[in-house]
Structures
1.
Amino acid sequence: MITCPVCSSQKTKEILSLHRQPIYQHPVSNVQNIEKPYFKDLVYLFCNQCEHSFQKDVDISVLEKIYKDYYYTPRPPDIGVQFQNDFMKALIERFDVFSSINSILEVGCSSGEILTHIAKTFPDKMLAGFEPSRETAQKAIESGFVIYQEFFTSMTSQKIKKPFDLIFHRHVIEHVFEFEDFFEAHKNISHGNTRLIIETPCLNWAIENLSIAPFHIEHVHVFSIQSLTRLLEKYNWYLKDYMITFQGNMIGLFIQKECNRSIPEVENPLKLNGWIKKNKKIIEMAIKGKKLALWGAGAGGIRIVNSFNLRPDIVVDSNPEKAGKKFVGYEYLEIVEANPWIKKERENSKLWVVIVASTFYEEIYQCLKISGWEGEIVQPYSISLR
């Protein structure tokens, strides 16, 4: 029996099995620098006790290497902004956290996108961040923020001598290996009235909408509303309020005072295994006789290529920093910048099918339509395709 990392129950069962998944999901400049293996079979389990999903047989050394050197390509500030806008709206309108705080720490601040948003809207706040990825941390430092270029741990957090009024992290907790140390670090830099805000993919939403987007090698966990609440309560953080975004992310506000919340249950987690089988026929029909463009040179894109055994004619991405890079294990895929490619192929757009393998689907869909694109646009992360 395998023990749940949240509640220690052994009442676990397999809910999703993904064969030969790519380990390195982001394009790199030099493929030759990376040693094999490039692929791994992934199995996700589900805990009947706390409704938590987690990855079986995690290789921590591989993931730490990815996070430091091969994780995420900083993008221009005007693309992929929907998640950021949703998060800022939640902080300002839903949770109203800025009226009574002065100091803010973001754990996993990437290149400082959200810190930049906050600095522009609330210039009087003291802002800092933790970010282990060298490339993205440097971007945040160049923006003028105090950045600790290392993993957020009990030891590294001791460098900070003054507690923060607000701590937040977006899409970090699903990557965490050791919860005890992670929340000891929170304790080191908080006071009795510190607020904690967490954003993470929501298992309830993923199952209800038949999406496997949250399930990949970098996500050790996929939290349900209940399992995130149960985990945080172990470390004296209590759910005061939460929301689920249109894209399936849960944003929760936690305080250090007990609250009573009604938590919905996860229904029928086993139905995720039917996702690939059901979507395979739909995608095969959509691309029959057409040229194939994959929009999304990231984790979503390479997993779509893998899951449906596709060989796109081109991989397109809005981020110019990704153009010319290669995916490890898929060196034949050519990555180009989106806007020049759209201008070049717009007159022939009916000959193309664009598979949007990105969580920023609505932004990309609108971009193509505004440009006059007439070809078919497919979103394979749910059963209902456009």
2.
Amino acid sequence: MARTGAADAIDFLAARVGGPLGAAARFRTDQREEDVFACLIGDYDPMHNEPGWTFEGGWDNTIMLGFHVLSFLHRFLAGAGVPVEPAPGQSFATLGLGRVRFVSSLPVGTEAEWSIELTSVEPVGDAHLLRTEHRVQLPGAERPMMVAQHLGAIFGGRPHLDGLLAEPGRPAIAEIPAGTPIPESKEHGESFYRGVLARSGEWLGATPWTVIDKRSADVFRLLSGEPGPIHSNPAWDRAHSPWGGTVVHPFHLLSLRSFFLPQVGLPVLTDDWMAAFNYGLDGVRWYASVPTEKRVRDHVQLLEAREKEPGRYLVKTRHLVEVEGEPLVALTADTLSLFALKSRSGGTTG
């Protein structure tokens, strides 16, 4: 039987299980790229987009959005030999993320390095599951900026996201509780977050519908360094894309958590009372590709909220993303946000 590109890639990867996948790769992101990314996901915040921003506890000048760093994952998988870019006889899909933590900040414009460890390559159905662990840090530093567990799949034909894992059933939209948003407040201080703590476990409702158009999807792919052709011709995508058309990058859909949270009452932008940080993820699962121009919305549950230390509140939310007209969710994600209150002296608690 003739070998395919996917088969050759799987042989290459299988010989490297349990060790590093390629050499650590360097990258650097400038302020203009950070500004555009922040606009795409609704998180245009002084800490990311106003050079000269400061924060008690050691931050100086702008720092990168955690989701911006995470969006580079496909780029570095491709550089390490994973067939991320579709080609005859091969395709690739991201299925999920395990534990992700943004351990420390990465200043905009600072060179960092990305390393990958290959955990396993496992045949399942018409695919091979690929589990990798990713680490981002400043060169020579002991403490990472980001650690992330990723689950992808390599196919010999067209990719798909559902039916490959032994897991609970894909959530149905009709079974999601309604919920009530957190009341809008002009002050996000201690009183506001005491109210948030009291809502632990409750559903916060569904956001308004929104659309990711092709232009926005293309810009996200350019910023992430996604392998493969990027253009403005939907007809080309219908003819050549393994998905049968133009689809939203999986990390773009995930990054909209920053856009959705304020719509159910949880602020994400630094203000006179607090600064909000993306703390990490406790699990993400993509079940279906999402075409551009389709309306999507988020159903949000406040899983847990606690005061991690004085003046700092750790909030865990669950996100079930719906595509209009589809009976089952396209994405589930458990995300963590850290809200740091500003100190009485006018700075921010560190």
3.
Amino acid sequence: MTISPEVSSLVAAIQDFSRNKLRRPADFAVLIDLAYAQKKKDVLGELSFLAKFVWNTYTVMKRIGRNEEGYDKLSFQFNENMEKASTLIRLIMKEGPADAKRDFTQAYFPMTPDAFQNLLDLLYDLSWLKNWEIDHSSSAKR
């Protein structure tokens, strides 16, 4: 799939902003490009918000460990929001090209450890989109 120059520039800017930490930049670009083309920026915004929440929850869960107080509640919230994020990704991909839908379906949606890690990595990248938006909206107000 060909990515628009606008989205290519945005992904490059986020890659720089994250200090080259994006894990799935090609799929990240596809998702953003489809959201823009389909006028689903609001869905992408909700997805990036959820992604930031999921990633932060995951980080806390790893830090405190399974046996600590509050872990079960965090785990429930994590799983619930992973499902919501997956649904939003599917919504954006629904009207995408057949090859992109196939690639995303194979990489992110099977119930396998690899697909789970792929989805978590894509959400990590989407959390950088939210971080970039927050940073750039506050710097524009200065």
